[in-house]
């Protein structure tokens, strides 16, 4: 049965500092490194070993992938990086402290920006200090100025359907190392979660989530590898 492993990057520097991150390219912390390694040790212990890997173009996800693969002795597998697996773009909130933003705009507004299905955060002004628009990794890409979960889904799903799903159909064990909201986008699709209920779904850092696909390529119930 083809298996899909989803892992959110280990704790990042801005997870620790409680800052909105989005497309800003922060590193993992020491704790994040350990979370990533632990994910790899768990995959090894459970015998769930990826044969092909996908990740974003952001170093917290790339490093998490490599650390996990190193621990389960799978650094050699083919790996593809694509911006469509990036974190949701946090617009003008990028770089701000989440608690200070709550104090300024109220808990309810911040919760809407963070978890509503289709309300995007305010746009990031062009040329903002956190605007990745001129970064060579985004050459030829229309970098968004903000993204809701809905907009994130609109660029994650074509990549899932066009590039990742065909690998599962071949029988590969696929690992995707990505981000809280690009993974929420995928889980919403795979688990058929409604626009309302997706607001309550959180994806923890460094915890492999598994989907097993049947012969008709229908995903079963997702579960945490640690609970299997
Ligand atoms: O981009 C970020 O700030 C985090 O990775 C995810 O943030 P969230 O939990 O506010 O969606």
Report the biggest beta sheet as strand number plus sense, adding barrel if it closes.
Answer: 6 strands, mixed
Tally the structural domains: 1
- The SS-based structural class is alpha/beta
Write out the strand line-up for the largest beta sheet, numbering strands in chain order. 3-2-4-1-5-6
Number of strands: 6
CATH class: Alpha Beta
Q: Give the termini distance in whole angstroms.
A: 16 Å
| Individual helix count | 7
CA radius of gyration: 17 Å
Annotated CATH topology: Rossmann fold
Enzyme class: isomerase
Protein name: 2,3-bisphosphoglycerate-dependent phosphoglycerate mutase
Function: Catalyzes the interconversion of 2-phosphoglycerate and 3-phosphoglycerate.
Active site: 9, 87
Describe this structure as you would to a colleague.
It is an enzyme of class 5 (isomerase). This is 2,3-bisphosphoglycerate-dependent phosphoglycerate mutase. The active site is at 9 (tele-phosphohistidine intermediate), 87 (proton donor/acceptor). With 228 residues, the chain is α/β, with parallel strands linked by helices. The protein has one domain (3-90, 133-144, 156-227): 3-Layer(aba) Sandwich (Rossmann fold). The protein has 7 helices and 6 strands. The chain has helices at 13-16, 30-46, 59-71, 98-105, 107-115, 149-169, 180-191, and strands spanning 3-8, 52-55, 79-81, 174-178, 209-212, 223-224. The chain has a 6-stranded mixed β-sheet with strand order 3-2-4-1-5-6. Helix 3 (59-71) links the parallel strand 2 and strand 3. Helix 2 (30-46) packs across helix 3 (59-71), helix 4 (98-105) crosses helix 5 and helix 6 crosses helix 7. The protein is globular. The two termini are 16 Å apart. The model has no long low-confidence stretch (mean pLDDT 97). The structure holds 3-phosphoglyceric acid. 3-phosphoglyceric acid binds at residues 20-22, 87, 90, 114, 179-181.
